[in-house]
Amino acid sequence: MAAITASMVAELRGKTDAPMMECKRALTEADGDMAKAEEILRVKLGSKAGKASSRVTAEGVVAYSCEGDVGALLEVNCETDFVTKNDSFLALANAAAALVVKNNPVDVDALGACAYSQEGFGPTLEDVRKGLIGKIGENMSFRRFKRFANGSKLAAYLHGTRIGVVVEYEGDETAAKDVAMHVAAMKPVALSSEDVPADLVARERSVAAAKAAEDAAVATAAGKPVQSPEIVAKRIEGGVQKFLKEVSLFNQPFVKNDKQSVEQMLKVAGTTVKSFTLYVVGEGIEKKVDDFAAEVAAQVAAAQQAS
Fold first, then answer.
1. Which tens digit of pLDDT belongs to each residue from 197-232?
2. How far apart are CA 236 and CA 11, in angstroms?
3. For residues 240, 246, 251 and 254, what is the CA-based torsion angle, rounded to 10 degrees?
4. Cβ-based neighbour number of residue 18 at 10 Å
5. Alpha-carbon distance values, 291 to 34, 51, 52, 269, 288 (Å)
6. Global pTM?
7. Are strands 272-280 and 163-170 parallel, antiparallel or unpaired?
8. How far apart are the first and last CA of the chain?
9. Which residues contact 304 (CB under 8 A, 6 or more apart)?
C-alpha cells in the first residue's frame, strides 16, 4: 500500500476541489495513483469534482523581479481579492517572477515545469500551484509574463500589486522611473502616434465618422446647412489625430508637470525610452458579477413552483 502524504491529498484537492477526506479516501482506494484517484472522485462527486479549475480568476497580483539587466513582469490570478493578501499566494507570485528571470521559459507551461518547492509542495512550480489551490481553497493561475533581456536599463513601478510597469531605457534613472509611474496613471497604448495599433485607429475613425453622420442628420432635420464632404473629412481626421495624441506616451502631458509632454521631459533629462510594458490585473478577463437579488428571486420562484 502506497503512503498517502498530505501533499498528495492537497494536490488532488487542488485538481478536484473535493473535500479533504474524500481526496484521502480516493487516493487510498487508488493506492496513490493520482489519475485514478481523480477518476474515482469524478465518479463519486460528478460535476462537483473539478469545479475549482473552471472558476474565473479575475483577481490577482502583478509581480516584478530583476537580476542585473534582466527583469520579468508577471501576472498571477486568483478568484477573490482576499487571496491577493495571502502570504503563500504572494510568495508564489514573487517566486514565479524570479524563475522567469532565471530560466527564461518560453510560455506559461514551461514556467510551471521549473523546479520550485514551497510549504511542502513541489518539485515544480505547477505542483506548488496545485498544492496551494488545495490549501487556500481557490483557483489560481499564471496568466502572462514578459522577460526583459535586451541590454537596456530597466525601470519598474508597481502601484500596489494590481498595476505593474517596466520601462526599457537609456539615460537618467529618475526620469525613467517617472515615466513608469506616468504609464501606470495614464495607461498609454503606444510610445508614439505612429505605433498605435491599426485596429484602434480604424475603430476611432469609425466612431468619428458615425458622429459626423449623426451631426449631419440632426442638421438636416432642423433645416440647417450640412457641412461639405471635405470639411467632414477634416473633422474626422482631426478627431483621429486628437485620439492618437491622447493614447501615445510621448504626446501625453507629463503627470508631474502638465506644461510639458513626456517627450519634452525626456529630452530635457537626456533620456531615451525604448519601450514600456503595462500589466493591469484582470484586464480583458470577463469577471462574473453575482446578482444576489436575482439569485434569491429565482430560488423563491423555484420553491413556489415546487409547492
1. 999 899 888 888 888 888 888 888 888 888 888 888
2. 57
3. 170
4. 27
5. 37, 20, 21, 51, 9
6. 0.74
7. antiparallel
8. 51
9. none
